[in-house]
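ligand=magnesium ion
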Amino acid sequence: MRTRIEPADSGLPEAAELIRCGEIVAFPTETVYGLGGDAGNPIAVSRIYQAKGRPGNNPLIVHVPDVAAAQDCSAQFPAVAAVLAQRFWPGPLTLVLQRNERICPAVSAGRNTVAIRCPNHPIAQALLRGSGRPIAAPSANASGHTSPTTAQHVYDELAGRIGLILNGGPCSVGLESTVVDVTGIYPVILRPGAISQAMLAQCLAAAGMAMEVAALPSPAEKAIRDDLKSPGLLESHYAPRTVAYRFYASDLRGFNTYLRRKPNERIGLLCFEDFVAPTTVAKKRVLPSNAEACAKVLYSALRELDAVRCDVLLVQFPESIDGVWLAIEDRLRRATKELPL
Ligand code: AMP
Ligand code: MG
């Protein structure tokens, strides 16, 4: 199949028609590029899983244009959901709700819940309104690999497997949405993102809902991992193809030992602005020390380093886990391994 990248504006009518016909299309959102299909059409949904090589047990996020459309796709829209949606939609927040029959079971990987998001991107909104369908759209990358934040990234991932990519330029947020389960007695963050635990808690408190917002459990807590509620928590995900190891600037013992033991390896380094890099690294990409700016370029930087075909990537970890840093840390943790000692 020939894959075309079209400017978003001129490609929109065709994209909307493809969605209505049960075909799949890649399109920009503010988080990352999505690979979308009609969430009510089982053939479209199976095409998404197939193009990505995504395991059938990893559910998809359904995109809707507004709160009313989210209510149409869910069996219940609790008060907590209404308050969070009112404050953060359109935006990078996904709510896990009870699914209704408008959404194919395959979207939810057989669960009775469905993850729904209202994106804050003019092209995504135009595609939703133009097609008139709720659009199931996971990130437009091969399963398990780094998410795409430009149309070219999507092409590099899925050329030959999809027909059309709408080009809307680079994504403004650059990290996948915060996923919050609102089906229980209190909200639980299943995946951290640009909307932090503190922002969610503050919003609920301001609405008079004195309610705990449970944070994502540490992936290191095996007991919890064994009872995964959300496959986006999988330990290895978002990964470059080159083997990648993480290190902290506050403890360089492993980093230095590695450089000493492997003097002949071509090393790709991903580090923050103030890190003094050894001159022996073959390729270096520097990340901004502001969290939002870092999130925006993180995946591009990983991809650029990955493309150089180094023997190994060494990835500096943020020391902070405040706000968006937690989401950055989470993605990097699952894209990298611990340095072998
Ligand atoms: P992606 O679209 O690739 O960013 O991945 C979507 C992620 O949303 C999944 O990996 C899950 O973590 C989460 N998700 C989607 N649907 C559900 C659901 N019904 N229950 C819990 N998590 C979900
Ligand atoms: Mg993904």
